[in-house]
Amino acid sequence: MDIYDLEIKYLSENPAQIHKHWEYSTPLFQYVSPEGNLPSLVNDSSCGCLTQIQIGSEAYWSELTEKIRSDDRIPENPYSIREKDLPVFAEWQRKIDNEYGRKPPVEIIVQGMVVDSLDTIG
Q1: Which residue in 34, 37, 28 sits closest to 10, CA to CA?
Q2: Per-residue CA distances from 101 to 33, 35, 44, 81, 97 (Å)
Q3: Per the count of CB atoms within 10 A, which of 17, 33, 90, 95 is most buried?
Q4: Is the torsion defined by CA of 7, 9, 13, 15 positive or negative?
Q5: Cα–Cα distance between 1 and 26 in angstroms, integer?
Q6: Tens-digit pLDDT profile for the chain (122 aa)?
Q7: Residue 113: phi, psi to the nearest 5?
Q8: Could you tell me where the DSSP H helices lie in 1-122?
Q9: How far is 99 from 114, CA to CA, in rounded Å?
Q10: Which region holds residue 111: left if phi is over 0, alpha if psi is between -120 and 50, else beta?
Q11: The dihedral sign for the CA sequence 74, 77, 83, 86
Q12: Is 27 exposed, middle or buried (0-12, 13-18, 19+ CB in 10 A)?
């Protein structure tokens, strides 16, 4: 089990929290960037998460932008994200981690509080 599985499990048990997790860029919804946060891009375009890229933001890595936009499994509206969509977000986050050398997060943090952590599963 990785951090993405852990968050899917949590959100499956608490689906009303999906949008809040999106707002706080938790692991499933982190920015498509080297650190998973909002970087400054050299071309002054807006780097986004998977959902934001679907509606016009860019990925840190330009070759990913069109690949993400062509995946019609990614909702364009964060309020449309449902439990059934979560594995798609996990799939993309793992791909970004593996192919671009990004280190996956070890905690799920919402409003400054740790919601869950890989430490809890040993």
Answers
A1: 28
A2: 10, 10, 23, 27, 5
A3: 33
A4: positive
A5: 17
A6: 899 999 999 999 999 999 999 999 999 999 999 888 887 655 556 789 999 999 999 998 889 999 999 999 999 999 999 999 999 999 999 999 999 999 999 888 887 778 777 765 54
A7: -115, 140
A8: 3-13, 18-23, 50-54, 62-69, 86-100
A9: 27
A10: left
A11: positive
A12: buried
Q: How far is CA 30 from the centre of its chain?
A: 4
Within 10 Å of residue 29's Cβ, how many Cβ atoms? 23
With tokens 């919402």, the residue in question is 110
What lies within 8 Å, CB to CB, of 65 at 6+ separation is 53, 58, 59
Name the residue with tokens 């050299």. Answer: 42
Tell me 91's DSSP state.
H
Domain boundaries, the chain: 3-121
